[in-house]
Amino acid sequence: MTTMVQTQERPKRSLLIIFAVFVLPVVLAKLALDGNWFERGATNRGELLQPVVSLTSMLDQQAPSWRVMYVVPATCNAECENALYAIQQVWIALGKESDRARPAVFMAPDSDPGAAAVLAEYTHIEALAVSEEQASTLNKSALANHLFIVDTQGNAMLRYPVYALRQDAVMGSRDVLADLRKLLKLSRIG
Fold first, then answer.
1. Average pLDDT of each block of 10 consecutive residues along the chain (190 residues)?
2. 5 and 62, same domain (yes or no)
3. Which CATH number does the domain housing residue 58 bear?
4. Do 160 and 176 touch, CB atoms closer than 8 A?
5. In angstroms, rounded to a whole number, what is the distance separating the alpha carbons of residues 57 and 21?
């Protein structure tokens, strides 16, 4: 009689072991995801804009291309100058991929005219004129006072802070460069 009880317990034990090995990890993984028990991984270094900011109306006359951009404010202070410097450095650092991305800035009617002198030093940065209405929209958006990457469809998708110190701007431009290289590697467009 004891052997019969033992043989009936073995299938139950086997079933419990199979359940523990296969089903329990799936249930724990689901609980971990739903409960935010850990920080989700992200490979981008910039802040992902959700939803993306559409710039198609401002870039409709431009050829489709990846862009590193900035909105020149009414007063171009050290942060502004460092942002322009960082855009130029990112474009130079792209090397053979530099033909796939364009450095550009939006210049509004109220943008600092002194920024034009700074831009004259950076011959590769394209200055795109925007209307007062478009400038107001940009200044109210998540793009104000940030560097940002624009995809080939005219959507700003990642943004980066600007820095008052040149050394910090150079270090921050490494993040822009890393993300842009990754996007260019994954993209067949532009």
1. 58 83 87 79 84 93 94 94 96 94 94 90 93 93 95 95 96 95 84
2. no
3. 3.40.30.10
4. yes
5. 55
DSSP line for 116-164? HHHHHH-TTPEEEE--HHHHHHHHHSTTTTEEEEE-TTSEEEEEEE--S
27 and 73 in a common domain = no
Query: Same domain for 55 and 129?
Result: yes
Range of the domain at 4: 1-41
Name which of 108, 103, 43, 39 is nearest 71 in CA terms.
Answer: 108
- For 72, the 3-state DSSP assignment is coil
Q: How far apart are CA 169 and CA 41, in angstroms?
A: 25
Residue type, 133: E
- Beta-carbon contacts of residue 142 (< 8 Å; ≥ 6 apart): 49, 53, 159
What's the pTM? 0.78
